[in-house]
Amino acid sequence: MAIFPFILLKSEKLKADQEIINHEKIHLRQQLELLILPFYIFYLINYLINLLRYKSHHLAYRKIIFEQEAYQHEANMNYLKNNNWYGWIKLI
Asked: Membrane spanning segments where (predicted)?
């Protein structure tokens, strides 16, 4: 979980999982893009709308635009280096 400016992990061994770390770094960038607090507001609103639409916590979570960007690019270790600012907007 990314809560600016920290990445919180369930276990010590996850520190070595570069995809998870990259996923969470993408969230940190998203939080910066939206000046932190609005990110959490938009994240929650997007989740609640998805929950009404899909009637499934898992699907509602996976359809959050910020999660879609992070999951799509978590394996690309150069994604953040290539200045892909506001990539989540394409997913609206």
From this structure: 34-52
Which tens digit of pLDDT belongs to each residue from 34-43?
A: 999 999 999 9
Q: Omega of the bond prior to 5 within 30 degrees of 0, cis?
A: yes
pLDDT at 67: 98
Q: What does pTM read for this prediction?
A: 0.94
